[in-house]
Amino acid sequence: MKEEHKILCNAGFHNDNIRLVTHRDVNRKDCENAIVALKQILTPPVGFVKSEAKRAAKAAKKPACSSSSSDDEKPKTA
User: Fold this and answer.
1) Is residue 77 in a domain?
2) Which 8-state DSSP code applies to residue 18?
3) Is residue 72 part of a domain?
4) Is position 42 within any domain?
5) Can you list the alpha helix ranges (DSSP code H) found in the chain?
6) For a tag on the chain, would you pick the N or C end, based on fewer CB atoms within 10 A?
7) Residue 19 CB-half CA count within 13 A
């Protein structure tokens, strides 16, 4: 954000939020520009959302854990 938008921000407590601070010389228009920049950065591309939805659908169809008692799959010892 610093290089592309000239906005400084820090990770918050436990990296679960973003901390932004303004100063006296920052006006409302600057804040609105920061919001637009944040939305651009935090919104995933359309193709990413579709591919993630497909991946999630495939994962939901697969069994969570498969166990087999077949002797063919067990390692053989000499």
Assistant:
1) no
2) E
3) no
4) yes
5) 2-5, 28-42, 46-61
6) C
7) 6
